[in-house]
Task: structure prediction
Amino acid sequence: MRKIALTGSIGMGKSTVAQMFVKAGIPLFDADAEVRAMQNRGGELVDEIGARFPGTVHDGAVDRDILGARVLGDRDELAALELIVHPRVVQRRDRFIAANADAPALLFDIPLLFETGAEKNFDTVIVVSAPSEMQRARVLARQGMTPAKFESILSRQMPDSVKKERADFVIDTSGSLEATQQQVNAILSCLGLTAAR
Result:
């Protein structure tokens, strides 16, 4: 089984690219989606986060905006949150791998792959990239996003140029969806996997 890591800074188009791999039959583990599920009503992290970060839980779910405001820009608080979240994500990832043991390849969408030193756990690393002005426009178009929040998120992420240098493959999402799909198909072919029809 080939373990493929998909990463890239915020607003680069990871979700779009990930779905192209899914359409080609590659099972996807989305770390952010797993965290959201664990922080939603009834999620396994709600009580623990609420105890460590009072005032961040409302109606049985973690308020991600309040939590984000609490930890972004505060290295110690962010580290405390990661100590709660990261082990649970690893557990879910291990279960995902076991459940898909017969697949020829698995895709892992991990935004902070390099930042957490996790790239060593994967056979192939793909970085999704776009010009900085396009990235900024995409991110600031999101509901609830502000320039200050965007800059705070960027400050935690390794520069795009460094990520590209460390990647096995780079997908440029600045063009059309068809152009992006062609790049995905080329990578699948290079890895001996079947491209989406």
